[in-house]
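ok so I'm stuck.
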Amino acid sequence: MQAQYVGTRAVNQPYLTQVNGYQTVCQGCFAPFPYARPTDPRFGAVTQFSTGANSNYNGLQLTASTRATHGLQGQINYTWSHCLDEVSNGGFLQFSAAGILSPPPGNLHRDYGPCDYDIRHNFTAAYTYQLPIKVHGDVLGHALSGWQVSGSVFWHSGVPFSVLSTPYSANGNGIVQGSGPQFASLVPGTDPYCRHCVIPGVTQPGTIQWLNPNAFVSAVDPSTGSCNDGDSPQTCQFGTLGRNALRGPNFFWSDFYLTKWFRLTERVKMRFDAQFFNLFNHPNFGLPNVVLAGIPGKPSTQTGFGALTYTTSPPTGLLGVGLGGDSSPRMIAFQARLEF
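replied:
not stuck anymore, here's the structure
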């Protein structure tokens, strides 16, 4: 049994910001963007490369292992950790489709929250067991003796993501040359999750509802493109939700292998494997595709919001990972090879 603490801290990390953006909605709307004209009208969009982002990671790592005892050998690993930053991967590469690459200008700390890859709980296990079956005799001995089972288990909690407001678009107005997340707001006292429920007019066929659409309110009404409750400095402001405030579904995966060696000659033997990928045929879903909030009570503005629509790639698989094949369902393979 082993236990260890791992901690890291990084300072002055790089990030990108669009610093010459402005908005054309109203005076005082969508702070910190100025109204009607950019900060420096001599230029169009200006991308500024800066340093100053910070991150920290703290993790407790536990490991338990056993050497071969009565034919059993295995190892279990568990990590309880938390990662916080303002920009993940320096803003150059998204960890997920919902990752936020650029903070709003002049407000870097507004994006301080869980890292895009912040997994709070991570459990893995691997085992090998030599079945204690010993049968004497040429035929039965070859067929029943010498079998080995092995496998692996992966489980981790969900990765974080953000819920955003619909961008302003009425009368051709909105934010120009700007960047940064336009967060939605959370309705007080409402559960943000609605796992596996079906909401008429919102949940689409073939999808699984994950978020409660009536728990989030967009600053902009998607049906009109203008601010909810009218255009004014009081209503046309970004929401109060933080970056990566929500969590996706947990991940579970288990593989199982059945192996036997058949000795053909003194120097040649044949190995037989039965391989079961995703043994329990457990579906693992990615993050919701639609994360732009609507208006509570108006299903037409919430269509498809917060639903799970696709499965994620497993850590192991018959077709390989990232090779274009869907290896997420359970797959069974039989393999024989000669060893000499």
